[in-house]
Amino acid sequence: MTEKTNSIAVSLFSEILTVDQLARNRVAKALPKGMELSHFSVLNHLAYSQTERTPAQLARTFHLTRGAMTNTLGKLEWAGWVHIRPDWEDARRKMVSISPSGLAARDAGLAVIAPLIANVVNKVGADKVRSVLPILRELRLKLAAEET
């Protein structure tokens, strides 16, 4: 790598990490009381996929350890936002699905964060955001491929 390429890479990741931190802080503050960003992320994924997932599948999806995902799922189950049941085909595994109250909690979270995100997109400009999405998606895919 050249020094110029290194400089671009450092600047790019510095901006991505700073945007990530600012966005996480803003969203976390807006979420309904008792809901953490990790809770919302799992609920949103389950609502979007509309299928049961194993804790291991969820851990892989979010690039977390199984222990970290088990901790998050325990909190979601305690809140009544997910159902965790044994896998009928393999009793060693569990299956996770979003509950009706979990879907309502996710919808409440989405209702408060969607305007925040839309406001930022409007300030930057929808066309600019749309143009950078393919690049960010490609970066995500390349980084994910390097993990496996």
List the helices and strands and how they pair.
Elements: H1 3-30, H2 37-49, H3 55-61, H4 66-78, E1 82-86, E2 94-98, H5 100-124, H6 126-147
Antiparallel strand pairs: 1-2
Helix pairs in contact: 2-5, 3-4
Largest sheet: 2 strands, antiparallel
Gross geometry: globular
Number of strands: 2
User: What is the gyration radius calculated from CA atoms?
Assistant: 18 Å
CATH class: Mainly Alpha
Which structural class should the secondary elements be placed in?
Answer: mainly alpha
CATH topology-level name:
Arc Repressor Mutant, subunit A
Task: Give a concise summary.
This protein is mostly helical. The chain has helices at 3-30, 37-49, 55-61, 66-78, 100-124, 126-147, and strands spanning 82-86, 94-98. Strand 1 and strand 2 (94-98) form a beta hairpin.
Molecular structure report:
- The protein is mainly alpha-helical and about 150 residues long.
- It is built from six helices and two strands; from the N terminus they run ααααββαα.
- A two-stranded antiparallel ribbon has the order 1-2.
- The longest helix is centred in the first third of the chain and has 28 residues.
- It starts with a helix and ends with a helix.
- The model has no long low-confidence stretch (mean pLDDT about 95).
